[in-house]
Structure prediction request, 399 residues.
Amino acid sequence: MHMQDKEKRPMGQVQRPSHDPGFAVYVHWPFCLAKCPYCDFNSHVRAEPIDEPRFVNAFRAELLHRARQTQGRTVNSVFFGGGTPSLMRPQTVQAIVDAIAENWTVAGDAEITLEANPTSVEAGRFRGYRAAGVNRLSIGVQSLQDEALKGLGRRHSAAEAIEAVKIGAGIFPRTSFDLIYARPGQSARAWREELDQALAMAGEHISLYQLTIEPDTIYERLFRAGKLAMPDEETGRALWDVTQEISEKRGLPSYEVSNHARAGAESRHNLVYWRYGEYVGVGPGAHGRVGPWLERRAQATERHPEMWLTQVETDGHGLIENSALTSEEQSDEFLLMGLRLREGVDLETYESLSGRPLRRRQIDELTSYGFITEDEGGRLRVTPEGAPLLDTIVADLAA
Ligand SMILES: C[S@@+](CC[C@H](N)C(=O)[O-])C[C@H]1O[C@@H](n2cnc3c(N)ncnc32)[C@H](O)[C@@H]1O
Ligand code: SF4
Prediction:
């Protein structure tokens, strides 16, 4: 179906994005000291120490494998995500950064981010990451209230999280931290105070996530049992409005649904995803979108860390999925990712991927409700009024 769709598209009409979204490498470290009750990321707790040299060898093999599929690309961003990458030894991070540089050209201004958990913060380790080439730190603060941190099952206090942010800011050129809001029992007034405090200590970037009840988590069981007083729709909306209002006032407006930055300080890594750029993912449970524009493949690796190790040692890669995406799948993904961004999507680029334009009736209807806008240059954006309804809007447009 993919090839047929491509053949139907007349030559000369292939429209690439006006700017190259860049090329990124995602490295997944799948271990944590403890599992947080709300989290459904691919993270595992191990009683025994992790054999890091063995993991390094496996990461090297996967990087070589993906480099063969993406020859000639220049790496604009590397992201160590987790799990808790700040549990990795700096030598492990160094070895992976080196392996990336051996396999691709790395742009001089490449962004190299590492996610850190305040529980594993230690200045010496941070300096080691910095020496390994990490130039951006993203810290999982989650809340500035001890009571809330306890409720989230976090093993650190607010004071420790604040200290981690300070240490990080003293070592890395760029830092960010994450907060989770719309927590059980949280009022808009309490969130306003907490967010104000957070923005006062924020640098150039902050991620503000609404708590989501994910399937198969302890939070889901508690929620089903009626033991989590999640904010109702009205409170949820008030929390969202407070978030937009204060962050904008403080000079960190949202550039994506949950991400806020000063102009020019956006996470380049995430921009590659949202602008539907090409990225490879290595490590257990990592995803990738690999291949030229119009010919993207969806890749995913084995999630279980030790099974991933064994597979890489046997096959030279941990992929369990490597499938061509149809034109429709690519254009749906382009829309879904791009409309998360304040900059929106280019309609011609959508059309070139999909082979057909978005339906005018849908655009006009959503515009009349004030949920989207279309500018003269042909860019479609979700308005602040439409932002809380993003999923419905995308489903409507892509239907
Ligand atoms: C995979 S975690 C990695 C960060 C690090 N392990 C930590 O917890 O500090 C990335 C971020 O996702 C967010 N997150 C995880 N589960 C979430 C959920 N159910 N709802 C909202 N945000 C969530 C948290 O803010 C977290 O910092
Ligand atoms: S939120 Fe972070 S520390 Fe907690 S389980 Fe998920 S990845 Fe691990």
The two ends are 18 Å apart (CA to CA). Confidence is low (pLDDT under 50) at residues 1-14.
